[in-house]
Design brief:
Layout: H1 7-13, H2 17-37, H3 47-56
Helix pairs in contact: 2-3
């Protein structure tokens, strides 16, 4: 079973399993777009499996975006 990736392996890299799946999905979309444009050569492996292996090999860097500051409005006096 070469193509089986257990969730325990993913949570070893990213503690939150939902966030790990989100990161893998985003990387798979990136890889797929490279394959469609021909920027990456032919491969036997599917983009999702490539993304999973890249995550497990710590080749994907991710970070949380900072919360954008919200505009502060002063109360207008009437």
């Amino acid at each position: 079973m070469k193509n089986v990736v257990l969730i325990d392996k993913l949570t070893g890299v990213i503690p939150n399993k939902y966030e790990a799946v989100r990161v893998v999905a985003k990387e798979a979309r990136r890889i797929n777009s490279l394959l469609i444009r021909g920027a990456q050569g032919e491969t036997e492996e599917k983009p999702t499996m490539m993304a999973l292996h890249r995550l497990l090999d710590n080749k994907i860097k991710y970070k949380y975006a900072d919360d954008e500051p919200k505009a502060a409005f002063e109360d207008e006096e009437e």
